[in-house]
Amino acid sequence: MQHFVQTSKHYESYTQLKPDLTKFLSDYDKTEKYYKNSRKNIYLKLHPNLQTAISNSEKLGEFHFDNIYSGIAEMYKIFRLLTMIND
Fold this sequence. Notes:
The chain is mainly alpha-helical.
């Protein structure tokens, strides 16, 4: 979701996420068939919004045990680390 909108909404399952996600990726399906279909290349669909996803994820902050139902996304840490390594 962070590729499209900054949100801290907590999703218990893909079933809960799907209605929100398909607003942005209408043909998305969490299946092996979808990921292997070259015409539905998820990387090419998401990559243009990578910087937005990183920025939105950073705004969410860190995990806190006193608020375990607040959504977080920490993938940005990997991308920051990879950028440092490659520079």
